[in-house]
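fwd from M.: "can u put these together and see what the complex looks like"

so here's what she sent:
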Amino acid sequence: VIATWRPSLRRTLLTNLVAPAIVLAMVLGIGGMLLIQRVVQTVHDRLLDGSVLAIAERVGVEDGELTVDLPQVALGMLESQSHDSIYYSVTYLGELITGYKDLPLSGFDRLKAGETGHRDGAYRGKPVRIGAQARQVFGRPGLVLVAVAETVQARRAVEREMLIGLAVLEAGLIGLIACLGWYAVDRGLRPLGELKQEIDARGIQGGPNLSPLDLSRVPQEALAPALAVNSLLKRLDLAIELVRRFTADASHQMRTPLAILRTHLDLVRRLGSETPAGQSALNEVDNAINRLERLLKQLVTLARADEQNIAQSPAENVDLNDLAFNVLLERAPQAFACDIDVQFDRFDGPAVVAGNSVLIGELLANLIDNAIRYNRPGGMVLVRAVVDVTAARIEVEDTGPGIPEAHVARVFERFYRIPMANGPEGSGLGLAIVKALSDRLGAQIVLAPGPEGRGLRVSVSFPLAKRNSESSS
Amino acid sequence: VRILIVEDDAAMARGLAERLKLSGFAVDIESDGASAAQTALLEPYSLIILDINLPNVSGFEVLHKIRQERSTVPVMILTARYAVGDKVSGLDLGADDYLSKPFDIAEFDARVRALVRRGQGLPNPTLICGPLAFDRAAGTITLSGRPLELRRREFAVLEVLMTRAGRLVSKERLIAEVFGFDEAVAPNAAELYVGRVRQKLGPGGPRIRTVRGLGYLLEV
């Protein structure tokens, strides 16, 4: 498998360490080379000066003639120093007194008496270094120039040797930096490897372990992503816990109706379905099945309200007047069966909101269902559409027991029921569904006592539809 | 033998009550925890069937209160909760049994019989008093091996007398164990049912002696 290119910490670190090290090494190399050349030149020039001096001291005047008394030993000493060739000359006012002819001596004529000078040149086709001294000789007006030329093999050899040494040292240094960088990355990244192993070891067996990772050994630089992982784990844990509790609650809610079914079915079997007691047991079976059916429907509605993608469906224009009327019409028989009257107050004008008619319909159906269930015989359910400047509202009022102050905060919780002896059967999902749906729709719910402080009034405010599209309705 | 059902779900309570009445028990129903704790202590119940999720006062609190008052009445917790922790805390609080909904009716029946039996200090499923034998599992009483044809109340009266054979059972206690709260009890109900039982036992059977002003006693 060819891996796609991805950034590498090691590569980055090595590049950033080694490249500057190479540049530094080159600067040092150039500087070192110059220094070496100078040192070598200075040292060798001193040696050359020694030779010049040795010859110059032998210059004398004999019978008015300039003479150089050069012992063979001295010359041998000069040459034995190295493999370089040595040439010398002694001139007076440009005239050769003794030594080699044609040594390049230009530039030395400006030397004053007793001064020594050096220059590079070529002699017999080879590069040479020439050292020269001007000397005053007794009884002569001009200056005697003593010059010694030396080929530069020895100098170059010493320079080369030192340069090679320098280069080797620098290469070693760069190599060392690279190795240290490599090792440092390895060492620095080891905690991340351990972190990975810890995550791998979590596994799924026996349920995912979502407890936070141990960050005590995570380096500071890697802490931010590790903390993010921990925060993600926490949120996941919370979400899973919510799902788990929901499942537990849902199954809990099914247990009682199932137990009722079993008990009463057993009674029917024992008593026979023709007896009055058997008949009433059959009715109980019917009721329990209705309960289960309602519970399942509510669970499905809730699951659907929880689905994210519904909210993403484009908002349509919904007229609350029409929608509320239709839902109430549908629910009216249920109300009449419980001896409850229904009333609808239509808003005088369009009450158009942006939303999803299916979801809003479901929300209203749940509200009206609640208002019918938690009511009293001879009571009343009133549905009203209201529009003001900022929002359109649906209000549902009932004449039931209302919600005691202490429970208002919790009634939207799933499966929460207000403890009430002889209250209607239910699972505590109605208002939870209303809440989930209104969250999806961006609607606001307000619970308040009904007229004269009795019963319950639920107002749901929806955002108004945009004006330009309102004209079409 | 009287049983108290503490259950806030009316349909559930009705079903259990019917089922227990068919087995010959007198049954009362309480749907509220607070009053259930009081009732449980006032009446001579042989078993309390207790739901945990009750409005206002939970079943655990009811159980705690009953045990605090040193009542030893057997308690069966019957609930839709199924967590092991609930089971443990229920039993630790002094429940004698724990059954999760939904349950098998036959198992429920058997557990009720076992708890009632143990509450009476009679772990043997068959109760023998001379020629009389009460098979609790089958719910039959035989006299010298022949099954007795008894109506529901008669059965209950004889059962109470048999479980306290040789001891005096007051009239009030007998009535309290045989009839539930909401059942109409005629002033002479005890005499009436004891008389009928005597008739069915016949001259060869064990004698039920009437102790005037006090109650009844099954001779062994």
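replying to her w this: Chain A touches chain B through 26 residues (CB under 8 Å).
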